[in-house]
Write a structure and sequence with these properties.
Chain A is an alpha+beta fold. Chain A has helices at 2-31, 75-84, 146-150, 176-180, 202-205, 212-216, 233-239; strands at residues 61-66, 94-101, 106-109, 129-137, 156-158, 164-166, 187-189, 194-196, 222-226, 244-245, 257-260. Chain A has a domain at 56-143 and 198-260: Alpha-Beta Plaits. The chains are: A alpha+beta, B mainly alpha.
Chain lengths: 267, 401
């Protein structure tokens, strides 16, 4: 009987030892680099970025939204909210629904920024509907950004590769940039108390990945690429005879966000 | 309405607001900021009318108006600091300003103006404070010693030099006051994304309304203080101030209306929105209150007082009422410009709403406290520096060094 007890106790000791060893070894996975960064499993989405030193002056990125393709599913909005943990009621990107009737009345709405997708048609429109379409909106990454011009401390700045970014450790939270943006792309983040907006996923782009909204779009309505690469899709679209325009061209901001098939009703 | 826009209910058929435009970012604090800087600039102009342009009738308020300006100057940055998301980073604006920002210059312009105003007050009060120093003891004596730069020299030569310095500071102060407040107007005028703000007239209107609020503030508070203290009001001074007030307000009001008329006549795509704003959310605060009650009534009231022969007592009484209304007019103008401009969504299709709460960080209570603070500071200043000419201590030169 004693031997049996001793055997059980020995087993217990062994068991506890194994558990301890396993825990320590397992926790090392969290601490030690395992070479994951060097071998990203996701294939390169923007060619020519990985495997060499990034040269900011060699890139000129553009974003194209194809109005004729957007289905208003809201996937882009969901992906964006998850990527950045965007506080409720604020939007880095949103999708508007335009409805036009035969009397040329235009009805626009954007419930919850389009985050839930447009799953049901509007039932409050009295006239016969002639046409309907969706317009995704995001930061226009202007060539002449009003936000950068007005920021009193230079916390909002333009990178040589064409991105307008915010240094949240420097921003004073005066909201002048929010007033100045003609596209209402900015908001004051209630968590950081600093200005916030879409970055075209700069952190992904620098790793050769597409902005997350572009990546998840099931209809390929959002396109992104380098205009200095003549083989990129955006270069080809901008060089084609398609109807391409920007929002509020009279503001003189020269956006790098282009719209394919944009309608005149869109502001 | 906010809810309606968010949930896509029937209410938003003709009212689409960009999702990020639903929130009004520049709240009551930014309404107070141009209001306070305007009062500073306007009150300074009153004192300069005496010190530079030698309008002798204004002697009774020449010192008071400077202290009035100084008291408000002490609080001008409070609403801004309360508004900032990170007030602890405000020094970044002075240390690493962005030269293209219309806002970055405020710290410099404000600081320069503050230095100028403080020095002007100190030089004007020097003979008074030298006399007070001789009468006081202890800490108060030390304070007067600091405020008079340790100098007790009241020789005619020294006083003459003081006068030259005062005249110089007051003269430089006029363009500085104009820059200070014209600049505040430019902060708004330079925002092309807001059709109501984006106008070259904005700095001009701000500057003129600054003069109005400053002069009206001096008249209103001067009469009330004198009545409260049971001292006679200098009618001549009030009459002259009222004339300046009327003149300034006629030009101010003309420009305010001209701006609306210009928009309505040009009928650009912005006009639909501005029309919708002024006859929609701003109908009461703009047309009824700012234009109707607080502009037209004082305009005619002051006109009648100045054109027709009115007994001095009645003049002072009605001029004080007109001044009170004009103080309110300028506050309403700030509200309608600052808040109104943000109520228009940049979607050009709708308006958001704004209702400040009483207790929130940038709410009504902080606004009241910030507006009351200059009055407390003014009272404290009055303890050290006599505001009125009649209770100045004798400044006959007592010592010659």
């Amino acid at each position: 009987m004693k031997d049996v007890k001793a055997a059980i106790n020995k087993d217990r000791r062994e068991f506890v030892k194994k558990v301890l060893r396993g825990s320590i070894a397992g926790s090392l996975f969290l601490v030690l680099p395992m070479g994951g960064e060097g071998s990203i499993q996701i294939p390169e989405q923007i060619p020519g970025i990985r495997g060499k030193e990034y040269d900011m002056s060699k890139q000129r990125f553009a974003f194209i939204v194809d109005i004729t393709r957007c289905i208003g599913c809201g996937s882009c909005c969901v992906a964006d909210k998850r990527e950045y943990d965007v506080p409720d009621g604020h939007y880095r990107t949103w999708v508007e629904r335009y409805i036009k009737d035969f009397d040329d009345n235009v009805y626009v709405d954007c419930p919850n920024g389009g985050l839930d997708g447009y799953q049901k048609p509007r039932t409050d429109i009295p006239g016969k509907i002639r046409d309907t379409f969706f317009v995704p909106k995001l930061c226009n990454m202007c060539e002449r950004p009003s936000c950068v011009q007005v920021c009193p401390v230079g916390a909002t700045f333009k990178t040589p590769d064409g991105f307008v970014l915010i240094d949240k450790d420097y921003c004073v939270g005066c909201a002048y940039c929010i007033q100045a943006c003609p596209y209402s792309a900015r908001f004051l983040n209630p968590k950081t108390k600093t200005a916030d907006k879409c970055t075209w996923c700069y952190h992904r782009v620098r790793k050769g990945l597409l902005p997350v909204c572009v990546h998840v779009c099931p209809a390929k309505a959002r396109k992104f690429g380098d205009l200095n690469d003549p083989e990129s899709e955006v270069s080809k679209i901008l060089a084609s005879p398609e109807v391409i325009t920007v929002l509020k061209p009279d503001m003189g901001n020269h956006p790098a966000l282009y719209y394919k098939g944009l309608r005149r009703e869109v502001v | 309405m906010t809810e309606a826009v968010h949930t896509g209910m029937a209410a938003n058929i003709l009212n689409y607001v960009f999702p990020n435009d639903l929130h009004v970012h520049w709240s009551l604090m930014i309404v107070l900021y141009p209001y306070i800087t305007g009062i500073i600039a306007g009150a300074f102009i009153v004192s300069s009318l005496y010190h530079v342009f030698k309008v002798q009738d204004l002697k009774p308020v020449s010192r008071y108006s400077l202290l009035f300006a100084l008291a408000f100057l002490a609080c001008a940055t409070w609403p801004l600091l309360n508004h900032l998301g990170h007030p602890e980073r405000n020094w970044e604006m002075l240390i690493t300003p962005n030269p293209t920002s219309a806002m970055a210059g405020f710290g410099y312009i404000y600081s320069l103006y503050a230095i100028l105003l403080i020095f002007e007050v100190l030089f004007i009060y020097r003979p008074t404070m030298v006399a007070l120093k001789a009468q006081s003891t202890g800490k108060l004596k030390t304070l007067y010693n600091i405020l008079t730069f340790g100098s007790e020299d009241l020789s005619p030569r020294s006083i003459a030099l003081d006068k030259k310095i005062i005249a110089f500071l007051a003269a430089v102060g006029i363009p500085m006051a104009c820059i200070l407040h014209g600049y505040v107007g430019f902060i708004f005028g330079a925002v092309k994304a807001r059709p109501l703000w984006s106008s070259p007239l904005m700095p001009v209107i701000f500057l003129l309304s600054a003069s109005v609020s400053g002069i009206a503030g001096v008249i209103f508070s001067y009469v009330l203080i004198q009545k409260y203290k049971g001292r006679p009001v200098d009618s001549k001074c009030v009459i002259t101030l009222s004339k300046f007030l009327w003149g300034a307000f006629i030009i101010c009001f003309t420009f305010e209306m001209l701006e609306i008329f210009q928009h309505s006549y040009l009928k650009t795509h912005h006009w639909d929105m501005i029309h919708g704003l002024l006859w929609g959310p701003l109908k009461t605060s703009f047309w009824r209150m700012q234009v109707g009650i607080c502009s037209l009534i004082p305009l005619f009231l002051l006109g009648i007082l100045i054109i027709f022969k009115v007994r001095e007592k009645a003049f002072v009484f009605f001029a004080t009422i007109a001044s009170g209304l004009l103080l309110l007019q300028v506050l309403l103008m700030r509200w309608n410009v600052v808040i109104g401009g943000q109520l228009m969504s940049r979607s050009s299709r709708g308006f958001t709403t704004f209702h400040p709460a009483f207790f929130e960080k940038e709410g009504i209570l902080p606004a009241i406290l910030i507006m009351a603070a200059p009055l407390v500071i003014l009272w404290l200043l009055g303890k050290i520096m006599p505001m009125w000419e009649d209770n100045q201590p004798s400044t006959e030169p007592t010592t010659r060094t």
